[in-house]
Amino acid sequence: MPFVPVLRAELIKIRTLRSLIGALAAVVLVTAAFSALASAAPDENDPDPLFSAFFGISFGQIAAIAFGTTAVAAEFRGGALRLTLAATPDRPRWFAAKAAAIALPALAVGLLTGAVTLLVGKAVLGADGPTWAEGLRGAVGCALQLTLMALFAAGLTAVLRSGVATLSILIPFLLIVSFVIGDMSSGIADLLPDRAGQVALHSTWDGPLGPWTGLAVCALWTTAALLAGVWSVSRRDA
Questions:
Q1: Among candidates 22, 14, 35, which has minimal Cα distance to 201?
Q2: What's the pTM value of the predicted model, to 2 decimals?
Q3: Is the pLDDT of residue 186 over 60?
Q4: Cβ–Cβ < 8 Å for 115, 98
Q5: What would you report as the CA-atom Rg of the chain, rounded to the nearest whole angstrom?
Q6: Which residues neighbour 206 within 8 Å (Cβ) at sequence distance 6 or greater?
Q7: Which residue among 49, 165, 186, 187 is buried most deeply as judged by most CB within 10 Å?
Q8: DSSP three-state, residue 17
């Protein structure tokens, strides 16, 4: 089967699963809400207007991860993957379509999230907010980071074949382990996927990465996870 019909079928799956629509809606709501709270009470010891405006991505990316995880994990329940592969025997092509079907809505929602969060942040921060040039960079970086984290989770789920296992690893890692490593290490944590991608959301950064090199590091993590995912789908029984 050609790639486009496979992609269309995967997009239909996403559109018809309420949990996935809910996860995408949560990306916007959670990111904007926590960003508004952070903007209303900025850290005077670390004034960074751009990150204050986009602080909520630390929590919004959890919803993005839930979206990517659930989209793939649904294939491993009730023999759904066997039916999918019966219609699309080319496993790498199917997984590529699945990844594209996750990336397209994630990027669209990410751009919406970035725009809404920027407007909310500037409205709350007022004159202390980021410039429009910084803000637009942050909005694009926000969209790319959310998309990459959703795809990272999708690849890991294909390897683990379990949404519960994936979320049990990634959520504690994002909320606890990443911060602990960041406090104990000297720049090593900046190479972790969540922290590397968020460099684009800072006005200034003392680490070795810049806004776009940070996103590139996150993209490398995501590429590795997707390659592992397509290897697992291709090699293991459905």
A1: 35
A2: 0.93
A3: no
A4: no
A5: 18
A6: none
A7: 49
A8: coil
